[in-house]
């Protein structure tokens, strides 16, 4: 035998009788792919199925919440409003504009009334004048002191006094600030002067 000759014979693939080698390789690859598909496909599809399910549930809840909101809005609109979404929105916008207009009108009337009341209070408080006279006064000074006390007890403030004292007559014009009408204040002052004279005449006949 030659020096480098071996007793082993190199293995050579031989096709199985009736099965070509190329067809056999294709079948093996196909089985591998099917095996991988059976093992990995469920792992991929399950999360996708869950995600789609959650999306459907969330969308259903969103639509239900939106429907309830439209129903609540429809319940406060004018009777006869159609129940479709476009009609509800259009009527709601119209109502909002109308309410805004009413609000502006009420604010304008409020400012007008406040101005009228302020002018009326200023007229009543700032320009009231009272006049009184006492013939043959027993004490002109005491009479004026009692008149000032009377005004203070009625919540009136004296702004100016013009008076004339004599033995024959006490005459005065007083400018006051008062929430009470001038006629009512004058009546109270006249009553006070009458009481002063009565007391003096009683004690000093």
Would you give an account of this structure?
With 205 residues, the protein is an alpha+beta fold. It has three domains: 17-75; 78-126; 127-203, ACT domain (Alpha-Beta Plaits, 2-Layer Sandwich), CATH 3.30.70.260. Helices cover 65% and strands 13% of the residues. Strand 2 and strand 3 form a beta hairpin. The longest helix is centred in the N-terminal third of the chain and has 55 residues, at 21-75. Residues 50-99 form the BHLH domain. It is found in: Nucleus.
Key attributes of the depicted protein:
alpha+beta, bHLH_dom, three-stranded antiparallel beta sheet, protein dimerization activity, Alpha-Beta Plaits, 3 domains, coiled coil, transcription
Radius of gyration: 55 Å
CATH topology heading of the largest domain? Alpha-Beta Plaits
Model regions low in confidence, pLDDT < 50 over at least 5 residues: none
Class by alpha and beta content: alpha+beta
Mean pLDDT: 78
Counting DSSP H or I runs of 4 or more residues, the number of helices is: 4
CATH superfamily of the largest domain: ACT domain
Biggest beta sheet attributes: 3 strands, antiparallel
Percent range for β-strand residues: 5-15%
Report the order of strands and helices. Answer: HHEHEEH
Keywords: Coiled coil, Nucleus, Transcription, Transcription regulation
GO molecular function, one term: protein dimerization activity
Subcellular location: Nucleus
Domain BHLH: 50-99
């Amino acid at each position: 035998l030659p020096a480098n000759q071996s007793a082993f014979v190199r293995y050579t693939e031989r096709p199985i009788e009736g099965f070509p080698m190329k067809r056999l390789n294709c079948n093996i690859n196909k089985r591998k792919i099917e095996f991988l598909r059976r093992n990995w496909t469920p792992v991929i599809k399950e999360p996708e199925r869950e995600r789609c399910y959650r999306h459907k549930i969330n969308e259903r809840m969103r639509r239900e919440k939106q429907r309830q909101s439209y129903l609540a809005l429809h319940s406060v609109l004018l009777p006869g409003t159609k129940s479709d979404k476009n009609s509800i929105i259009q009527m709601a916008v119209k109502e909002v504009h109308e309410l805004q207009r009413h609000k502006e009108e009420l604010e304008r009337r409020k400012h007008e009334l406040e101005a009228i009341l302020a002018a009326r209070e200023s007229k009543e408080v700032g320009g009231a004048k009272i006049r009184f006279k006492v013939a043959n006064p027993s004490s002109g000074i005491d009479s004026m002191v009692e008149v000032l006390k009377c005004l203070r007890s009625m919540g009136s403030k004296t702004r100016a006094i013009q008076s004339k004292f004599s033995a024959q007559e006490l005459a005065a014009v007083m400018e006051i600030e008062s929430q009470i009408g001038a006629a009512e204040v004058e009546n109270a002052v006249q009553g006070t002067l009458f009481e002063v004279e009565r007391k003096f005449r009683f004690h000093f006949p």
